[in-house]
Amino acid sequence: MDTTNTPRLTNTAGPDVLKAVNLLYKAAHSSGVPGPTLELVHLRASQINGCGPCVDSGARSARKNGETDERLFAVAAWRETPYFTAAERAALALAEAATRLADRADAVPDEIWAAAAEHFNDEQLSGLVLWVAVTNFFNRINVTTRQQAPQNWG
């Protein structure tokens, strides 16, 4: 029997976990980082991790909050497109580095941090780092337990 795409758990987070995550969500979203930037960071980290539910919900949420299809379709290739501001590019680079920690000895090089620090203050940098961590947290749960994006959103 092929169970490659069968979810391993149907309930991946109990009420206590959801309460804690909601507090982290609020902290990241009240750090002063623009909402669209947080949406892009979430989408990019989720793409890197191959998290179908987070890519799906992230793109839908961003679109619902006014993001254009042009920019959403280009997130995976943000370096090669003209659609993102310097601040968004710095946030995306930080998100990629913090998501791919094992890819290089200096996981988040000084130049990536410095570029982000040019556009975001300490509170905002903390919010970005926290949001990338929360995104990676959910990505890892969903990928490990083989959660699928919903087939019908109605």
UniProtKB/TrEMBL annotation:
Tell me where on the tree of life, at the top rank, the source sits.
Answer: Bacteria
Q: Which InterPro entries match?
A: AhpD-like, AhpD_core, CMD-like
List, for all copies, the residue spans of the domain called Carboxymuconolactone decarboxylase-like: 15-97
SUPFAM superfamilies assigned: AhpD-like
Q: Which NCBIfam families match?
A: ahpD_dom
Q: What is this protein called?
A: Carboxymuconolactone decarboxylase family protein
Originating organism: Dactylosporangium salmoneum
